[in-house]
């Protein structure tokens, strides 16, 4: 036995051992173990490996080359037929050891630590090798590795793997810690400690002495409109350098009442939509260097913004001194508390704070805003606005509890990405919504486990924005959704479980933006809202549709939307079409048909009961409902079944997963009228555009996006003839759209 083994038996580590040598010795033991366990594989490998592996003495005298060659053979990394289905322990161990050796070669400064850790496992592995040899002598027919041996190998492998993961991190930290030509990397040139950026706002005295704080304060005071000042301070709730979406900001500001939800006159005398006002505000902040647009190459204009750390910390401090938001304490993590101006921000861990309990919240009747910044389980906030909480508050003398101050209840996700999982553990708490009588904004975006909205939401007569985006478990909207008389924005995008729209959706007279409308295969049009019925929404400007109905093509869509009077943006996505077994010609079609008929009969009976139960309420609450429906059927505009057309007001058309081979004639570039943006994303059948017979001058399309169209065949010169006013082209995975002067990612800009 060599000196290294003797030292291991006495428990003393080798004096300053070299990690590469120790790992190499470990690899040799693993190789011997592998030979014992997989004799057939080793023999095959030895025949093809040449003299190095075939001669035992050469293998020992030149172990590095032998092991390297052994690990390079593919059959050594696969499981031998004689092994059990889970016998992958040794190849994994070999791989991890090899990677560890490569890392250690670059990290000689850590050789002692690594060597000592690996050294501990050599002797146990040698004993394991001896046990395998003993078991083999006893009964060669049995698997050489017992369960206990596999467990020992797993334990060793975990420790080696953990060590391998740690090694590359250590030198990076040490390297960063060293300054340039300076042994002390924790100090800057002035000898002061470098302050961690997330904690800048906690050092108020130092921050106020900085020029950047004076600049932000001066720009803040220069904002002539107090509304714009509050808009700037709202960035204080988000982490620095985090992307904040413009639409989310608009929703929030409308809910707070600092931004009008109505179209207002601009300086030029034209009417400005809220979207335009938000753009003006953010453009002004950008010119003042207070925020930065997040540039995305595939977007013509940015839709998200972020705030640099020092500017953000200055805004946080100004907001705190004014009393608008109060999340930060010196040298502490963000905490949930009610600010002087009655704003509450939920942060990570809020659910475990004492204030999370309804009894601990001092003045819930004064809260104006609840905004979820980073909390994953926010449903405790419902309890603040419960009947019990009101009865316990002695300052309230109401026969029925109401919370008239609350305008924004934003429990959902403000980030566009789905990295933060949010969950409501007790959806029944939504019944407390009926007490939030003055609520303007309600957001459950990205919250899971919400299967249905409580009918209490229909009590929110002043609600302007209902954001249900990405509520993946949501199955149904309330039948009496028309009770939300003030609703302007409804977003149910990515609510995949919803397959039918409530009939009264078309009664929302003030609705301007509807995202996620579902066209399903429901046959009972008396119970569910159809696409054609949305023509009664006289103010509708934006509409996105998800089509889950077989045979509902582009012609059906534009027959329905032809008479939409103010529609500016339309998005249509085909997909999720349900086909019954008998339609596919599979066995059991008759039985399936019977089952479907039974289910349809049950559903119809249930709906009949609901209609009967709601009839009395409708008579009281909706006296004009029956008259309105009858009037629309008799005197409403007739849908032209022969000539589908684009709405005259349409500016943007987005077609996704286009199902046909050709665009209809009225969708060809020459007939697009005032359309300025055309997106076609996905369509494995679409082959191309028709070649124009004459020169096209009427097409106003400036932005064209073509994505995932493998059969679309068109050349650049033809595109320029079809779209003479083109300013921006986005081409992605369209191999037959050729000769376009795009850059490396498929973008061309005029």
TrEMBL record:
Gene Ontology biological-process entries: defense response to other organism
Coiled coil feature spans: 90-117
Domain Disease resistance R13L4/SHOC-2-like LRR: from-to ranges: 398-571
Organism of provenance: Arabidopsis thaliana x Arabidopsis arenosa
Protein's name according to its UniProt entry: Disease resistance R13L4/SHOC-2-like LRR domain-containing protein
Keywords: Coiled coil, Plant defense, Repeat
Domain of life: Eukaryota
